[in-house]
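Lecture 7, part 2: worked example. A protein chain together with arginine.
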Amino acid sequence: MKLWGGRFKKSESKLMEDFNSSLSFDRQLYREDIEGSMVHVKMLAKCNILSSEESKAILSGLESILKDIEEGKLEVEGDYEDIHSFVEINLIERIGQVAKKLHTARSRNDQVALDFRLYAKRKALEVVENIEYLQDIIENLGDKNNVIMPGYTHLQRAQVVTFKHHIMAYYHMFKRDRERILNAICIMDESPLGCCALAGTTYDIDRNFTARELGFKKPVDNFLDGVSDRDYVIELISDFSIIMMHLSRLSEELILWSSKEFNFIQIDDEFSTGSSIMPQKKNPDAAELIRGKTGRVYGSLVSLLTTMKGIPLAYNKDMQEDKEQLFNSLDTVLSCLKIMSGMLSTLKVNEKNTFNAVKRGFLNATEAADYLVNKGMAFRDAHKVIGEIVLYCEDKNRAIEDLSLDELKKFSSLFEEDVYDFIDYKNTINRGIKRNLK
Ligand code: ARG
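Predicted complex, written out as structure tokens:
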């Protein structure tokens, strides 16, 4: 069933019909499509392009379609080209000839541009809510686990930090992600309705009215741009890609930390799986899946950038390919944010093991060098002295603080009794708090 055909002698091949149809995925836009049509009709009546009886009939028809879909009485499926055709043909079947006036002063080009912007805005806000929820969980986890652990560079133990400081790094990463999405919403917040096919319309319509009623800041400034702009989709998917990159880095740490080699954390049974052959195993599948699914979202970004890169203004059917990329990446990012929140809210930190890793890792070596600097030695010389001490300790399987003052003095006469306090892990953390390690 189509909304066109007058100029054709032959009917479309079934192969082409299936190839062209987008209903199987753009059915997700039904709410935005009907909402957009209702505001369009109100505007047509306000501008005396439709009579008030006509507009009332169309509005109640659209309302009944929306209600039936929401209540499961009308399935969005069948032999239709897209969601726009589905709604319009259903409307004609319900209220008759007057329904054919709905598409006055409108094209499917500005219609789809509108539906997709409305949808993108709504779902982007859902992502923001999920980020905020995850940030709360992270803050809580940090507050509960203000315990000493090694900080790493090159995945080698480097300096003492706290679990809280480490996990709060992700809080700040997600804070930027949230701001990026809110900024993208702000940029996309213009209504394309009224651009029509590509050049506006000869009817005296009111684009400010429709923009306002649909919750946009204003109508777009340029008709050609309005119908062919998909920057906002690309921008959102690139924001989602960055979120996934952050989730994936966090997942990687959870996977490492939950291994027996680290044993810093326990991922709850609720978010772990077992092995069908090795009875002892508990696998961090949730984290691995997040890490794995990151590739899908990157794929959507590259796919849509490639789709858009060579098409002339204005609308081209290539752009129908935008839908699945946004739908898929939204599904992925939303489910990954939820799973990460679940995993972190049930996570246990093994305080003893994080502390032992600090002790075995010479994580006060930099502080020991700083101690000598405070006593007057040049840092480069202090670095060398402590390096020699570490070598000595490694050989004897001891930590710097386990050496006696006599032993330390063999490396430098500047060592005094106060060194032990200075290189004590808790004291180094307390000094760290002063330098904002919270
Ligand atoms: N299904 C189409 C899309 O998603 C709707 C717009 C169709 N416009 C047209 N001129 N054929 O892009």
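The first helix runs from residue 14 to 20. Residues 22, 26, 82, 108-109, 112, 315, 319-320, 323 surround arginine (CB under 6 Å). Keep this in mind for problem set question 3.
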